[in-house]
Amino acid sequence: MEAIQGGGWIAVLFLGFVSVAISDQMPGTSLDSMSANSAPRITRQPPAESEFRDGQSKTLLCAAEADRQITYRWMKDGRQLAIDPSGKFSIREGEGSLVISSPGGQDEGVYQCFARTDFGTALSTKTTLKAAVLDSFPTVVRPIVHRPTVGQPLNISCDPPRSYPKGRIYWGLSTHSTESSRLEGIDNDDRVLLDHNGRLYFANVLMKDSLLDIGPNLYYACIVKNALLGKFVKGNEQKVNPTNVSEANIRRHAPKLMWSSPVLDKAIRGENKRLKCIFSGLPTPRVSWRRIGGSSELSGRASPTPESHNTEIEIRGVDYTDDGQYECTGANSEGVSSRTLTLAVESMPYWRQNKIPSDVEAVEDDPVEIECLADGSPRPVIDWFIDGIPIQNATRNHRRRVDGTRITYDGVTNSSDRHVFQCSATNVHGQIIANIALNILASSPSFLLTPSDTKVVEGHRAMLPCRSTGAPKPKVTWRDPVTGNGLQRNRFSTGSDGSLEIRNADFADSGLYECFIENKFGSNSVRARLLVRKPTLINNSPRDLVVNVTDDVTLQCDVTTDPEEASGLRVTWTKNGKRIESAFDRRLSINPSDFSLNIRSAGVDDTGVYACHADNGLDNATSAVGRLTVRGPPRPPTGVHVTCETHGATVRWRPVPNDDDNNNNNNNNNNRVNEYVVYCNRTDDDPSGHVIECTRVTAPVRIQDVPPEFAAYVTLHPWGSYSFSVVAVNSMGQSSPGQASDGVCTTPPAIPSRNPGGVCSKLLGPRQLVIVWEVVPREERNGAGFHYRVGYRTRRDPPSTDFEVKAIRDPHQTELVIHDQETFQPFEIYVQSANEVGVTPLGHSDKRIGYSGEGKPTVVPSNVNFNEDSLNSTSVEITWTSVDTSLEKMNGFFKGYRIEFWRVNQPDEKRHEDIILNRHFDSCPPLSGKGRSTPVRKKRKRRHFASHRMSGSTDRLWPNSRIRAGVMVLNQANYGRLSDVIEFQTPEGVPDAVSRLEVTESGSNHLVVEWSSPLEENGVISDYVLTYAIAPPYVGSSSQRILPPVERRFKILDLLPDSTYAVSLAAETGAGRGQLSETHGRTLPQTAPSRPLVGDIDVGDDSANISWIPGGKDKPGNPGSRFYVEYRQLVDKGDDGKWNQTERVTDENWTIVADLKPGQSYEFRIVAVNGQDDREQESRSDIFTVYVPMEGERKTKPPPKDEMLIVKRGDSVVWWFVVLMSTIVLLVIVLFVVCLVYRSRGQMYPVYEKERLWGSPHKDEDQPFGEYARESPPLRPNADHLRKSGGSLESDEKPLDSSADDSSNDDGDSIGDYDDADPAKFNEDGSFIGAYNRNNRGSGSTAAASASGDRRAFKKHRRRRGPEEDDSPSPPTRANTYV
After folding, report:
1. Is-contact 1009 1001, C-beta < 8 A?
2. pTM for the whole thing?
3. 1121 backbone φψ class: left, alpha, beta (φ>0; ψ -120 to 50)
């Protein structure tokens, strides 16, 4: 359809709204509200026959359904019953079932149910109601006695009384007496049987039939049981008294028919039918059945009944195919007898082709035909009824004609022709009835199925459904909603159901379509949009591939689809037609970008045919298939068996099939077998076996040349038990072994196969001859009692001298040590193999020349020197004059020289460098034919010869060290005396890496790194080079800092937040930069720093040393990168003056506030800073107040950090609280002074007692801030402290001099004795020095900062302090704290 453009779209939308309005105003409604659902439909009805028990209520079922109210009535024997809810006949509420209360004989008859609505009346089938009854047997006074001859047949009659429903007949044993009577059923067998009328038959009578072996007064009795009534009746008693004859006179006789089912019998289709034959005879006959005509076998539905012992067959669900003749045959050793039974199959009526006549709907004035087709045997009679009235009695209609099984109307009208018709089919076996509603339709058009917006692929067929209904049937027209014109195109067609078919859809067909329906009662329309999409295509299909196991495989599948449908595109893969679920195999994955299938580490099981399938929900595409062949090692050969022989075995096996043999077998794992390897497994000495390769057999290249069986002969070692296996080999490797199933082959013993190899002497101790050899393998020992015979004699002995021979019984021993021999003397040696069978003869090369152990060389290198041009921090070249290397001088075989060297200041730590010049020599040459030989010496390659000078180098010297070195000679086992020693100095070298580098603190914009010195400095470290940069994968420029050699800690500032940095550090000496050490640290996210916690506070004459703990209570928290202190003087109560600031501190956690006024109080707070410039973030500590004493005032040590009172300024502080706290403080000070005066007058005491009274400023348990907390020193000062302060070292408990002149205090020691207004007396951590000697008052430490409070002086002093002072700082004094 051509696209609609411009203003046409407005028209389309307008027509759409109009169409919807019309559709809403003109629904497809019937002009008459009556429908086929208004007619009653019988859903439950009674069976053809029913029974009742006297006095018990009986219900005849009947129910119907309709879309309106239903009324019920019942007919009995053609007359309507009077229904009375309180009477005998009533109808069950909610349905039409008839309830008969206390029925009797007068209520027997034929009943039928009628269900009626205003549409018409429906009928149920008729049911015959009968009373249940069981009559008694006629009374007989005396039992009947039967006297048959043993072996002859006998039958006993029953004559059962009337029973409804039909009773079950069986025979029992009756004990009769005047007092009681009891019944016990008898068990039937193939000799004693019943016919269908209850008569009892004996095929041959036996003496046990008299029942005397069971009891004296037992009789046979016929019994009839009515299951419905739950009772039974017993017939007359009968006795069997056989006439006894001797066994020799019992006459055998052939089978003879005693009773059978009727020769001409009938069966009802659908029911079960039994046929039975009873034969007499001795021995008891065996009965068999067959069908005459066609196949003699009985149908699958015909089988013997379990209790009949094959004398009776039952046909289940009789069908017309069971009609015919059946033959029963009785046979025993005396003969055969048979009877032919003819079975005729009839049936009650049934609907032809199982099609029950259905309701008919017709449009006014249309002709109508109602048909009722039924079959049966005999043929049923068809009767018609209209609303339950026989059609011949109904109102006549000139447009209606009845023709046997058919009713026709020339034209129907809505007013008079709407009825429920009944079609009844009846024969002698029963009746069936069908209710057929004729509904007359008249309605405006409406839609049953409307088209919806549809997508179709270009070139495919498009279907727009438009199924409608109406009476008369609406006319369907498809048209353009804009023009209203019908669609006239060759590719367009309208189906019989109104659907529009567009063949070979094109993009021009996209647009709106309208389905218009109309009949004489109205019209309706609906619209739908058609969208034509591009097809889904697979442009690159998987190709055939051949790969090896463990290879990674990629199978291509390049898919394109319409862009509008791309979001719904799904691609799947199949292998051999089955979908691949990659979620169940982690080796398989589909690439989301190009939909290729990736197989990691392919296996042989991945071999198969692969295809990809693309589906976007609209259309789909399937690629061409690609075959993936994965080659692997072959599978093992089969059918391996062996034939044992005296000195070998023949191994046979079936070849592994190649692909061309059987594509489905794939035993060679897609790779041709190249050869087979036969392995022999010797198991006699090791239960786990010793596997060796025996032989290889090449497999033919051509398939047709491969034999059905391979064979290989293998030679076996004597005295062994062997099993065998065969493996197949291809280009990918070997298969697992195919084991032989024939057991083990055993070979007899023999002398050893050979003498040991590797016979030689080992140069060990100087007075030892050590003879060594290689172990002879187990498979070459060839017998029990295997041992070695080791022979030796000196070369000085005459050739006629016998060898000394020693027997070595351990077959695994490979060495013999002979003591007390001369040093380095030649010997003739050999080692022989022997066992209980004999000794292996010595060959020409089995005798060798060996030597006893070497001594020390007797020569010493001379003129040792070193090459100054070669000297550097770790290497040097040493030269010397060569020595005589003869065997006599060497006292062994010359090997080379050794350079030995050490440091002058550490002579015990020695190193050496061996210069090997003689690596190739034969220490055990073969014995020559003349009995004399000399060692074979290869030409030695001497290193660095200059005339007779030799040289050697080493690169293992110690840098920056004084070295001594010498040279000695080496033979193969020892070294000679050291030469004269030379001495030289090595220059500096580059240092080793630092031994520890770690990040100890992280903030938002800084990292703190700490390190330890290199283990080997190799010189004087000049500085450390610190480099840092953002760690990969991010790329950025690196920064570098040069740090002095004394530094072990550095804070890196101005870093990016929440970033990982790589930090490296190297030490430098004059020789260069050493090896880098690297670590990583991550900055914290950009946040304000944690509030710092106030630390120690030390107050001087006009300054204060303020310290803090970064991170505060939130430690580790987010410590600041920089810190400064804000302070202001307290002038008046509540005066909030301007805050002053100190310089910013980065490396230290303290600062000095200078230029303070004595006698004044100041407020302080500590500020932590993160970030820089305009992006700084700050956090402030609590405000605290410090008083600066005037000259002569007593200063009080600040309380410990956990007791320091920090006051936050604010309006919430009330005056009474201030007064109360001031009073308490004053009382405490007075009490403290009194105690001091008392102590000073009463006795002398050591300094540490005063500190005890002041209280220890720090305790371990009060240090909650980790590495930021300061360690408290012992209260008792150490020697260093006293020495620096001028204190005495005579005794730890020496009292202070209290007699010195001091105008401010005449009573002895006081706090003022230890006061010093000069802040320069304070250490950087707030501790004071010189407090134990008043004579030193005002002198100050050389390491203290000046009174100006210059922070740089404190830092300088800290760097000059010793390690003990750093680790154990002096205790700080407390500052006076005010509220």
Report:
1. no
2. 0.41
3. alpha
